[in-house]
Write a sequence for this structure.
């Protein structure tokens, strides 16, 4: 007498119908509803570094000394020449200080584990946010003097409609900051299940 095969239990039948049962538990695909929400934390904050203008400070200092030497050598007894030279030197340094003050006060940046925030303006301030998942490329640029001082400009390209190309000017430790932005965007894309290579 032949034996009939055992009928699978209801729990085993339900398991065979589960599309995730074919995967090990640590490899099961997660849908959007299963993504874990994580707390937004600040990874980096910064603004315009005074070291960015070191080359401009150096040129202004050389020009100022040169003008003083010229007026002292050829026009030492001419008071009008002294007034002109001193006025020119004052104008040069005032312009540099005004430029530095504007950049320092009007540009602030904040990187979190989910987005890059940037604030523009002094009296009227505008704050914009770029989602890290939308960032497609991160690069930085340095001049010869900036390379020695470790400062530079970071360019962030994204699919953001308002700021498809955001330039972070005068960033200290520019290489580390650029790497931090790139690492944060990769982590956010992995968390949301987006292939980094797809960008």
């Amino acid at each position: 007498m032949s034996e009939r095969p055992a009928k699978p239990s209801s729990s085993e039948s339900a398991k065979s119908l589960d599309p995730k049962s074919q995967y090990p538990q640590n490899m099961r695909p997660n849908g959007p509803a299963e993504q874990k929400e994580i707390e937004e934390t600040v990874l980096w904050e910064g603004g315009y570094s005074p070291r960015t203008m070191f080359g401009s400070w150096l040129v202004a200092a050389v020009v100022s000394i040169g003008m003083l030497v010229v007026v002292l050598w050829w026009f030492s007894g001419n008071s009008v020449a002294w007034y002109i030279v001193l006025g020119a030197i004052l104008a040069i340094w005032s312009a540099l200080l005004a430029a530095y003050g504007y950049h320092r006060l009007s540009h602030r940046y904040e990187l979190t584990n989910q987005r890059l925030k940037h604030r523009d303006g002094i009296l009227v301030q505008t704050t914009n946010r770029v989602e890290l998942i939308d960032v497609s490329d991160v690069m930085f640029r340095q001049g010869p003097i900036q390379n020695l001082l470790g400062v530079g400009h970071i360019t962030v390209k994204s699919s953001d409609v308002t700021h498809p190309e955001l330039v972070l000017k005068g960033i200290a430790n520019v290489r580390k900051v650029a790497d931090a932005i790139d690492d944060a965007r990769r982590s956010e894309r992995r968390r949301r299940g987006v292939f980094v290579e797809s960008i």
About this structure: The two ends are 65 Å apart (CA to CA). Helices lie at 10-17, 54-74, 79-106, 144-149, 174-191. Residues 132-192 form one domain.
